[in-house]
Amino acid sequence: MTLHDELLEQLGEPGVEQVAGMLGTDPDQARDVVQAVTGIIVGGLARNAQHPDGAEALRAALEDHVDADPFNGDVASLTRDGHSILGHVLGGQGTEQAAAGLARLAGIDTGAVMKLLPLIAPMVMFLLADRAERHDMDAKAVADDLDRERTAVPGREALDGLLANIFGSAVPGWPYVGRELAADGSHGSYGSYGSYGELEPGPSGEWEQGESAPGRSNSDW
CA-CA distance, 85 to 106, in Å (whole number)? Predict the structure, then answer.
């Protein structure tokens, strides 16, 4: 069972209906959006965990999420925790880019996706932490598991393209798939479009002050 399947199972029909109300859509589309949001978070985690230091930092962070069941938590605490996780995995600007890209793909409001992302992030971390504990996974095993999860996500090419745009460079083994994910030109300072199917580094390549760079150690997950 994938993390996405586990997440939907934990949410149940009442949870899916709440998400549908938040997004202003029906439960079927809500499931699709949850799947895409889960996929972008898993993809970001997998991207960071490709590097040994990122994998070790993630494995250590999972220890703090083993007993923090987000499926019974309140929205305010979930949102705070989720923003910390997203800040580490995608960065602040990257999170905004993810929300905008996912909203375009789903044809829904960007603001609604921005509210959903920090709610789903702690759920993904909790499920991954639980799996890592049950199977006694080390950092490398977690990284390998995330890569398997990434490849199992439906619509992976579109999500990989969005992740490549967020990180400002092609993710190894994750080809950038086109310009349509940033058709409004909002690809930020981390990357700019080169020839079709490629990305060129952005002008600075540095993260703004106070923002966590993806994959770097950060105690505030």
Answer: 23
Predicted TM-score of the model (pTM): 0.78
DSSP string for 158-218: HHHHHHHHHHTSPBTTB----SGGGTTS--TTTEEE-STT-EEE-S---PPTT-PPTTS--
C-alpha distances in angstroms, 213 versus 115, 147, 173? Answer: 21, 20, 21
Dist. CA 131–CA 110, nearest whole Å: 31
In angstroms, the CA 164 to CA 159 distance is 9
Task: Spell out the domain ranges in the chain.
Answer: 3-201
The helix (H) or strand (E) run that includes residue 59 is helix 52-62
Portion of the chain with pLDDT greater than 70, in percent: 76
Q: How far apart are CA 207 and CA 221, in angstroms?
A: 17
Split at pLDDT 50, 70, 90, the class of 123 is: very high
Distance separating alpha carbons of residues 162 and 157, to the nearest angstrom: 9
- What beta strand segments (E) does the chain contain? 191-193, 199-201
For tokens 């044809």, the residue is: 107
> Which conformational region is residue 215 in: left (phi greater than 0), alpha (psi within -120 to 50 degrees), or beta?
left
Angle subtended at Cα 204 by Cα 172 and Cα 53, rounded to the nearest 5 degrees: 45
Which 8-state DSSP code applies to residue 30?
H
